[in-house]
Design brief:
This protein is α+β, with helices and mostly antiparallel strands and 104 residues long. It is built from one helix and seven strands, in the order βββββββα. The mean pLDDT is 90.
Length: 104
């Protein structure tokens, strides 16, 4: 099993990411979204078993990734990732979910 996490950074050329680009960290146990601000940061973590769906909305240059938890709240939105990063993020989350449920 892979134990390393991978960080995906949004492009500075997209909305909300000009000064402090958002980061999505995908690890074998959780997905963490970090949005930095001038003072402080917002960080939200979802356990890999509680991710219900992942939606990728591709635009001309960049993609938006919607990560929905099984809790039914509004999905977390990650703007400004390349199409390749968005697909890699989705595949990595699905891989970690498969490994998690094989162990259970």
């Amino acid at each position: 099993m892979e134990t390393e996490s991978r960080i995906f950074r949004a492009s500075r050329f997209t909305r909300g990411n000009r000064i402090f680009p958002a980061e999505v960290e995908v690890s074998p146990t959780s997905v963490t979204l970090r949005k930095r601000r001038l003072i402080g940061k917002k960080e939200e973590s979802i356990h890999i078993a509680h991710i219900a769906s992942i939606k990728i909305d591709t635009h001309f240059f960049f993609s938006d990734v919607y990560i929905e938890s099984s809790g039914g709240e509004n999905p977390e939105v990650c703007h400004g990732h390349t199409k390749g990063d968005a697909i890699a993020m989705k595949e990595l989350i699905e891989k970690y979910q498969t490994e998690y449920y094989k162990r259970s």
